[in-house]
């Protein structure tokens, strides 16, 4: 029986994939608490998380 694989969204963070979450958190240079706060505010969109992380670090210019 042929079954379709679930389509992965390229711009959404899969919260059940611990490696993906850890990699993104380290790339954004956020602590686990800061990452959880940004995730709560912006949802699982990677681009929204990047913007939220830039806003959380006032010393760095937004990209």
List the keywords:
63 residues, mainly alpha, 51% helix, elongated, DUF3606 domain-containing protein
Q: Helices and strands: which structural class?
A: mainly alpha
For the secondary structure, the number of strands is 0
Count of helical regions = 3
- Strand percentage, roughly? under 5%
Show unreliable segments.
none
- Biggest sheet record: none
Inertia-based shape: elongated
Please compute the radius of gyration using only Cα atoms.
14 Å
Mean pLDDT rating: 86
In whole angstroms, the N-to-C terminal distance is: 47 Å
Share of helix among residues?
40-55%
Order of helices and strands: HHH
Q: What does the model show?
A:
The chain is an all-alpha fold and 63 residues long. 51% of the residues lie in helices and 0% in strands. It has a domain at 18-56. The protein has helices at 18-27, 32-42, 46-56. Helix 2 crosses helix 3. It comes from Bradyrhizobium diazoefficiens. This is DUF3606 domain-containing protein.
Write a brief structural summary.
The protein is mainly alpha-helical and 63 residues long.
How does the SSE layout of this entry go?
Blueprint (H helix, E strand, L loop, with lengths): L17 H10 L4 H11 L3 H11 L7
